């Protein structure tokens, strides 16, 4: 039986795209499942538009109806939503917000539990946090006050630190929930289950058995309508500093002493501390950037709408990351992410070492044809696990062939899998910060990314350098070839 939590949500950016597409459907699912207390919950949405409560509720109905069991259910849910037109830069507006929050708190008997969700452009994060505290929007009667904050968290170490200092004036670190929706994905969470629930896996999760680990976050589309934001960001900031680093950290961390958020965070931070931060020269050698060119009807990046035609923004990154500790000495973690690639998918390939001796080849006097064992975790678009072994070909003799052990999520499991936002909002309601990025993690990831960014802002790139529909520039293949390795997934194969 679900534990229902009383909560008053205050959502900044309630008329925005993210709210409509992800947040309302997620809160609705939590409501349906009984994770938010249906009698003791309300949401104040704010935005610049002059909407009435009725208009706001129409938008909510529009966003959740397809998933409702009945019209009454959707309407009952929407009746908990209240709208205030609000300019987040105007301090006076927060007094009205505070009064309204207190009124609804009483009306729904919410007992002071408040969740503030800032789903707005990042330059507003600090302003909102400051005014919330200064104008008594936080409850002070023993209920919880939690701040959920969208990405991006800064654009380099300095801006992230500035933002963090601004938040810290109003909220303690343990009240801040920094969203990284990759941490809400089923298979990313499954890494922890697989690693620490199976001695079979944990026993070989080290440099004695693992040759290298590859993490790929590929997108099939180009910048689409996000060009305005994306051109000022690029793939390193948009995908590597946050999502990719978080996945690497979970793959690399040591065993936490328990599944509690504080224990997991402690190990994630330790792993990030052991990550080698490159010098500029090392960054040049170990990171590759790319920008897509044209292909048939597909325009090159520089001719996409709202992109300057001399843009040097990277739409692709590949790199090698090293953890300098006993477990991972000499095991490279290769990462890559980009737009306009072969397909849309996220996968992790854990490549194991080959047997020291191939008895099958030595009996025949031939070269070894054994493949590396590979454990592949498919994160998107399907949740799937494949363990690739070497097995015997059917028939006489002893010819070897790859043998795949595959687990694919069933339809029932799929139906039971919440969307990342639903899972993360639920975690925040419960006060579980496991799947949110702490400041120590975010800041370390910026330290790492800043060196690469600085090199790329200084050196002139040779763009465009990859074809839409490929897996990126040749230099990304050379990065591994130099080490005598290759990407497990390679569209050229
Ligand atoms: P959006 O532009 O669609 O919405 C912005 C919201 O902010 C609107 O409700 C607008 O009224 C409000 N707003 C702007 N200026 C205001 C002001 N001065 N006072 C009061 N309200 C103001 O943005 P979005 O796409 O919903 O994104 C919101 C946040 O989520 C951003 O931080 C973005 O980076 C992040 N994000 C969005 C997506 C997505 O898919 N849309 C995905 C990941 C992260």
UniProtKB/TrEMBL annotation:
Question: Which molecular function GO terms apply here?
Answer: glucose-6-phosphate dehydrogenase activity; NADP binding
Pathway(s) annotated for this protein in UniProt:
Carbohydrate degradation; pentose phosphate pathway; D-ribulose 5-phosphate from D-glucose 6-phosphate (oxidative stage): step 1/3
Q: Which residues form the Glucose-6-phosphate dehydrogenase NAD-binding domain?
A: 11-190
State which Enzyme Commission number(s) the record gives: 1.1.1.49
Q: Where is the Glucose-6-phosphate dehydrogenase C-terminal domain?
A: 193-487
Q: Which SUPFAM superfamilies match?
A: Glyceraldehyde-3-phosphate dehydrogenase-like, C-terminal domain, NAD(P)-binding Rossmann-fold domains
Q: Which residues bind substrate?
A: 181, 185, 219, 238, 339, 344
Q: What does this protein do?
A: Catalyzes the oxidation of glucose 6-phosphate to 6-phosphogluconolactone.
Q: What name is this protein filed under?
A: Glucose-6-phosphate 1-dehydrogenase
Organism equals: Apilactobacillus kunkeei
């Amino acid at each position: 039986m679900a534990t229902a939590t009383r909560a008053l949500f205050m959502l900044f950016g309630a008329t925005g795209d993210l709210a409509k597409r992800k947040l309302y459907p997620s809160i609705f699912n939590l409501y349906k499942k009984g994770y938010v207390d249906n009698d003791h919950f309300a949401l104040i949405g704010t935005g610049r538009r002059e909407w009435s409560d009725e208009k706001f509720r129409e938008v909510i109905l529009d966003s959740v109806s397809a998933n409702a069991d009945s019209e009454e259910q959707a309407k009952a849910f929407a009746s908990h939503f209240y709208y205030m037109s609000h300019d987040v830069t105007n301090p006076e507006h927060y007094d009205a917000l505070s009064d309204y929050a207190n009124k609804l708190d009483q009306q729904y008997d919410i007992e002071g539990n408040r969740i503030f969700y800032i789903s707005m452009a990042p330059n507003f994060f600090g302003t909102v946090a400051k005014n919330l505290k200064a104008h008594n929007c936080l409850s002070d009667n023993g209920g919880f006050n939690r701040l959920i904050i969208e990405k991006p968290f800064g654009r380099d170490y300095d801006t992230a630190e500035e933002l963090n200092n601004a938040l810290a004036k109003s909220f303690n670190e343990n009240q801040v929930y920094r969203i990284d929706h990759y941490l809400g994905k089923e298979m990313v969470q499954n890494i922890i289950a697989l690693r620490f629930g199976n001695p079979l896996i944990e026993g070989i999760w080290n440099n004695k058995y693992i040759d290298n680990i590859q993490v790929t976050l590929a997108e099939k589309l180009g910048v689409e309508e996000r060009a305005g934001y994306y051109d000022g960001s690029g793939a390193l900031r948009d995908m590597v500093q946050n999502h990719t680093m978080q996945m690497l950290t979970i793959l690399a961390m040591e065993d936490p002493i328990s599944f509690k958020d504080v224990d997991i965070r402690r190990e994630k931070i330790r792993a990030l501390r052991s990550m080698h931060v490159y010098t500029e020269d090392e960054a040049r050698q170990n990171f590759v950037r790319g920008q897509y060119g044209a292909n048939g009807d597909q325009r090159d990046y520089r001719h996409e709408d709202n992109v300057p035609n001399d843009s040097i923004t990277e739409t692709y990154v590949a790199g090698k990351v090293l953890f300098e500790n006993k477990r991972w000495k000499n095991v490279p973690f290769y990462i890559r992410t980009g737009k306009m690639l072969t397909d849309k998918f996220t996968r992790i390939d854990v490549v194991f070492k080959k047997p020291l001796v191939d008895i099958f080849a030595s009996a025949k006097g031939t070269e070894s044809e054994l493949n590396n064992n590979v454990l592949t975790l498919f994160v998107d678009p399907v949740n799937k696990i494949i363990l690739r072994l070497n097995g015997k070909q059917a028939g006489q003799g002893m010819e070897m062939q790859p043998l795949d052990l595959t687990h694919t999520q069933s339809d029932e499991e799929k139906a039971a899998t919440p969307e990342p936002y639903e899972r993360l909002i639920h975690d925040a309601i419960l006060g579980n910060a496991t799947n949110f990025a702490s400041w120590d993690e975010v800041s370390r990831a910026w330290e790492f990314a800043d060196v690469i960014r600085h090199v790329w802002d200084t050196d002139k790139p040779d763009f465009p350098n990859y074809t839409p529909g490929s897996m990126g520039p040749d230099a990304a293949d050379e990065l591994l070839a130099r080490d005598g390795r290759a990407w497990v997934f390679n569209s050229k194969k």
